[in-house]
Amino acid sequence: MSLVPSLLLLTAGIGLVLFGWWRQRAYRPGRLPLIPPFLLQLIGLVLTFAVAAHMIADLSGITWTPPYRR
Fold this sequence. Notes:
Keywords: Membrane, Transmembrane, Transmembrane helix. The chain crosses the membrane at residues 6-22, 34-57. Helix content is 67%, strand content 0%. The protein has two helices and no strands. The protein starts with a helix and ends in a 10-residue tail after the last helix.
């Protein structure tokens, strides 16, 4: 994956975390959210960490090989 899609996915992950944080702050008594804000934050964090690890590996040029293939 090139740099532009990686940056877009990283931005989307950070955006999901921020959107979940914003929805968590907006408390409305008696109205439950369709998608829990915690789930949005969790998905955003996993996406952010995965894309950040991918970008570090891409930019450094070091490929990760599993231990069973060494």
